[in-house]
Amino acid sequence: QRVEVGPAHTEGDLIVHLPDEGVVCAGDVVFCDDHPVHWAGPIDEIHRATLRVLELDPRLIVPGHGPVMTPADVRVYADYLLELRDRIHGAHAAGRPLTDIAAELIATDTRPHWGLTERMAILASIEYRSLDGDDTPPNLVRLVDFASGFTAPAAGPAGSAQATPIGATAAHRPPVS
Fold first, then answer.
1. In this model, does residue 30 exceed pLDDT 80?
2. Nearest by Cα to 78 from 101, 54, 96
3. What is the pTM of this model?
4. What digits encode the pLDDT tens for the residues 87-96?
5. For the ranges 46-55, 84-93, 146-155, which has the lowest average pLDDT?
6. pLDDT tens digits, residue range 75-86?
């Protein structure tokens, strides 16, 4: 059975529930062992779609990225989305620039074993747009350009993680519509 859950990752998200098998094919609504990237959002909608996966009471979840997950794995992912949301919302409320929170999210990554940390810059940008009331379609090329301005965390002195902007272009220029 097909269940529409968008907008979350994109405008037209849907998941497929196979109740007899105890499986939900979640597509890009859920990521496993990979940092999330979502093009529609906001994060609350992504979280809602993730919870909808769990409401179907599956035994296994097939994510859009990474290995098959259990419901416990999806709960961890859902909690992580809320952690990111809270940090991004706090930065926005404090008037912090998008580039600052994007760099901070990457530098303080709590899941260094996950891939593509620069996706958090895209997630922050989409969330800032939502918080600013901007409902125009984002320029996806500019978002990817913005994210490419950050390298993955690298161990610094005493093992501290640091996000390093590449050059003085994309990392210092927030994406625009």
1. yes
2. 54
3. 0.83
4. 999 999 999 9
5. 146-155
6. 999 999 999 999
Phi, psi of 146, deg, nearest 5: -60, -50
d(CA 52, CA 13): 12
CB-count exposure of residue 153 (10 Å: 0-12, 13-18, 19+) = middle
Residue 168 has phi, psi (to 5 degrees) of -120, 30
User: SS3 for the chain, per residue?
Assistant: CEEECCCCCCCCCEEEEECCCCEEEEEEEEECCECCCCCCCCHHHHHHHHHHHHHCCCCEEEEEECCCECHHHHHHHHHHHHHHHHHHHHHHHCCCCHHHHHHHHHHCCCCCCCECCCHHHHHHHHHHHHHCCCCCCCCHHHHHHHHHCECCCEECHHHCEECCECCCCHHHCCCCC
Compare 4 and 58 and report the one with higher pLDDT.
58
Encoded tokens for 118: 């620069």
Considering only CA atoms, which of 166, 165, 77 is closest in space to residue 114?
A: 77
- Please name every residue paired with 18 in a beta bridge, in sequence order, or none if there are none: 23
